[in-house]
Amino acid sequence: xxxxxxxxxxxxxxxxxxxxxxxxxxxxxxxxxxxxxxxxxxxxxxxxxxxxxxxxxxxxxxxxxxxxxxxxxxxxxxxxxxxxxxxxxxxxxxxxxxxxxxxxxxxxxxxxxxxxxxxxxxxxxxxxxxxxxxxxxxxxxxxxxxxxxxxxxxxxxxxxxxxxxxxxxxxxxxxxxxxxxxxxxxxxxxxxxxxxxxxxxxxxxxxxxxxxxxxxxxxxxxxxxxxxxxxxxxxxxxxxxxxxxxxxxx
Length: 250
Description:
Blueprint: H1 3-21, E1 23-25, E2 30-31, E3 35-39, E4 43-44, E5 50-52, E6 57-60, E7 65-67, E8 73-77, E9 86-94, E10 98-102, E11 107-115, E12 122-124, E13 129-131, E14 134-136, E15 143-145, E16 150-152, E17 155-157, E18 164-166, E19 171-173, E20 176-178, E21 184-186, E22 190-193, E23 196-198, E24 205-207, E25 211-214, E26 217-219, E27 226-228, E28 242-245, E29 248-249
Parallel strand pairs: 1-3, 2-5, 3-6, 4-7, 5-8, 6-9, 7-9, 8-10, 9-11, 10-12, 11-13, 11-14, 12-15, 13-16, 14-17, 15-18, 16-19, 17-20, 18-21, 19-22, 20-23, 21-24, 22-25, 23-26, 24-27, 25-28, 26-29
């Protein structure tokens, strides 16, 4: 057996082991053991679907769709108990009240299309991350995180609330945000870098101070393109306590 053949055999073996290690999901249920789970079919739910009752749960939607009836949450924490190390990735979640509703938990949501939900699409607790997702046409906020969160690389459009709202010390980096009410809103200590926030029905970016907004593009927002909470933000006055550098507004 030559080196290439051996290498391919090893890769196939590792993939097989990884697939075998994941618990398969073909219906809504409570996940009460840590470890990897993988969806194996599209799922329709009436009310809540996956209840997270353990830490270090990793859910791979594997390209499938989890659909709701306008109520409940696709993913939620059991009895509002905070969980750590939860990951939800690689699929579509649509038509619930919320796609993810885990206000007390540290959650990573990546490569998820959250669309057509009747409340906030993705809500999670402190130190959560939302990256490389599409968050579209939801009836509340697009992404709402607690303190020290990270929102990066997402497309967040056409939501009827704020596109991105994050708590103290959070970072919002490299997102395309448009046609929401407010585009991006941060609490104290926010870092807002390299985002595009356009065509929102109110403000493009709203930041509490202190904070830093660097290299963003804001345009065609019906309110101010950039606004500091509770005061003006003219860098030539002492009223401005948000660093506002290299931003482009139209």
